[in-house]
User: Fold tRNA (guanine(26)-N(2))-dimethyltransferase from Halorubrum xinjiangense.
Amino acid sequence: MDIEEGGLTVSVPEARDGASEGTGGGVFFNPTQELNRDVTVATLRAYRDREPRAASYLDAMAASGIRGVRAAAEGYRVTCADVDADAVDLAAANLDANGLDGEAVHRDVNALLYDEGPFDVVDLDPYGTPIPFADAAFANGRNLICVTATDTAPLCGAHLNSGIRKYGAVPRNTDYHPEMGLRTLISALVRTAARYDKAARPILSHVSRHYARTYLELESGARAADDCLEALGHVDHCEDCLWREATPGHIADPVAACPECGSDRVLTAGPIWLGPVADADFARAVRREVTDDMGEAKRARKLLGTVARELDTPTHYDQHRLYKEWGEPAIGMEEFVERVRAAGHEASRAHYRGTAVKSTASIPEMREAVLGDDAD
Ligand SMILES: C[S@@+](CC[C@H](N)C(=O)[O-])C[C@H]1O[C@@H](n2cnc3c(N)ncnc32)[C@H](O)[C@@H]1O
Ligand SMILES: [Zn+2]
Assistant:
């Protein structure tokens, strides 16, 4: 069946009955990833101003090629790769039908990256974890590595051993699990890049629905890689009062008891990425590149606006969870943020969910700020 996306017409397999995503004709296509693809196109547009030399784009797991086709329409020199021969035929036909240059190749992307690299932009969009492709991508990527991960349960600590195996880190299941997942993913990718003496800095990231997406800009050099690794560290988290503290450094020094409530139920997660997950100016530039021909333009603008305004400190609080702890009815999010700011703290919403909030204030300080006299 033909679908329209971003002003292009692309042939994709029919979804199975009742499925929102599918492998209907054998080749994979997920219509609910349109937001991810719209943000990708806006990012590719904005990235051209940031790095005008970036020209080649590898759609490393192309399936129908829809991502590569959209990148080719933006003027990138596109290679679509897939191990599935039907996918390669479909991607080639889709490039052709849209009158776009670009090649579709039947290759394992790891072999392709080592044989044909470097590529300026590499886009990893696998089933589940991107880790089996990360070494090849960072070794053979030049400017920008775009990564989707859909294995959110291992990433956020819900499937702890799987997370430890895949990501070489200890993620912990907390009330800020989408952020835990994103920071675990970035940590593993940054450590992978460092093996090749490259710094990988996230210039845009988001967690939407059931996936995490991050765009990492590369800088070559052992010194740059060392600097980048300094943004890794650990988070201690109290399961009783939700106190948490982020500590940079390669080696964790877990706390024995929560300094806020004395509980010994303190979890330590890490190494996770403690640095910014996005560059606010770049996120604003990407937002400006969202155009009305994108099916998810409205959601993309909202998402990117929130990402750009978000405090870049780890970690966010769930406002409803805080009010539950306080035994009070929650107020509106904007009002909550305003009250915390009015008390002299930094605060912002966070894109991870509608009730996510970030602040430099501690939980008791937030309570005092929003409940005032009622706090006692
Ligand atoms: C989630 S789908 C990609 C979806 C696509 N990027 C989109 O936006 O619709 C994953 C694809 O990766 C392909 N794949 C899996 N392992 C691969 C490998 N080692 N090299 C290249 N492609 C691979 C699969 O055949 C499948 O088509
Ligand atoms: Zn505590």
The mean pLDDT is 95. The two ends are 62 Å apart (CA to CA).
